[in-house]
Amino acid sequence: MSLIGIYNHPKAAKMAYFGLYAQQHRGQQSAGIVSRRPPKREGEVLQICEHLGLGLVPDVFPEEILNRLRGSRAIGHVLYSRSGSPSLRDAEPFRIQHRGIDLSVAHNGALLNAKSLRLRMEKLGAIFHTATDSELFAHLIIDAMEKGDKLPEAVAAACKEVRGAFSLLVLGNDQMIAVRDPLGIKPLSIARVEKTDTWVLASETCAFDLLEAQKVRSVRPGEMVVIEADGALASPTLTSIQWADSPGCKHCVFELVYFARPDSVVFGEEVYSCRKRMGIQAAREAPCEADCVMPLPDSGVYFALGYAQGAGLPYEHAMIRNHYVGRTFIQPTQEMRSFDVRIKLNPVSGFIRGRRVVIADDSIVRGTTVRGRTSHLREAGAREVHFRVSSPPVKFPCLYGVDFPSREELIAVHKTNEEIREYIGLDSLHHLTLEGLKAILEKPEDFCYACFDGNYPVPPNDEEEAAAARGLRIEQPED
Ligand code: SF4
Q1: Nearest to residue 75, comparing CAs of 53, 48, 55?
Q2: Atom 4 of ligand 1, nearest CA residue
Q3: Is the predicted pLDDT of residue 217 greater than 80, yes or no?
Q4: For ligand 1, is residue 266 a contact (CB within 6 Å)?
């Protein structure tokens, strides 16, 4: 999931569009933008425009739609595919109107206590239209405003109710508010378009590059930043409110392993060089007698570069990716067994034949994809196939918004390294050790590693909370 916020730009929605475009890798299920045009003179009314849709950003926002999204303030969101089929209802930002308040909310993360809070709000009369945490935030904010809080205080009150991971953007009548949870699990940064009063908020800094905005800083864990202007023509001001004490950071390390774009800086780490360091460290831990190193594009590329450098091996690109594979395609005939794997990535047989290759990627989850890739490399004539992984074995589901399968489906839960090697059909297999991963980070104590070691920085109270955070429903046994 990804967030973008633009404050004080004549084409805020267009800027938000490009900000989402740059962050498309963080979610392809749906995209949405809400924009606002504050009144410029007395008698004018606030204009609010919104558009949400399923699919990729350019498909959801053709130019004629984008041109209709007027205003100088906008927030946008792309949704990452989680359990279940895509639903337009769950596209964000979520917008609600209540007694003259028009509120839009977009969220990156997952909440542990969403179910109990929803029940409580429903008992108070709230009617939910979606399954999103953003709607829950919106109801909690409205509830606090009903009790007399102004918008920033109401957002703080809502944040104090929830447990889990959240980076949040809220667009009110006059204000844009950015919030991070007390552990800073998800990224969110502030930038300013050079020589202007335009402020940009984004999950990833690659969005700032496209928008020609300079990063000012990250929103701090437990901080709320309120951007507001006294009228459409006034310069915006930024106010920082520490709504919760931060006991220390627990950033998602998977952002560095997989999620973030390599041209981003996330949690103070340059993702590109961080992934290369993972490769160099893996080469130290598990060198290999081989003829070349090849990434599984795109996620393994920079790790493979580092591994090749560390191991003193040539770096090759002999797995060719089809960049035009859509989300769905006509199913092939029964005989085309390996269609699903081959349509995305195909080995260059002429190069691979007779060679000992090291392939590199970010993780092994179920093991089925890499098993298919390995068998294709063998069919292409590879003499040996070795695999190096840039993360420790994934043994625990993420409760904070990253969509790993259930524990039962995670291959590392049931098989040892040797059993996985054998199942996939590899000559050797090495996962970067947890110690090795920590060793390449500037501040290893600032990261969450729960999907590797099960130490959840915000632990669930029970199984139901854990399931709810992953978007699952626990079936109740029948009497
Ligand atoms: S459990 Fe893993 S994927 Fe989830 S926040 Fe922690 S490090 Fe990231």
Answers
A1: 48
A2: 398
A3: yes
A4: no
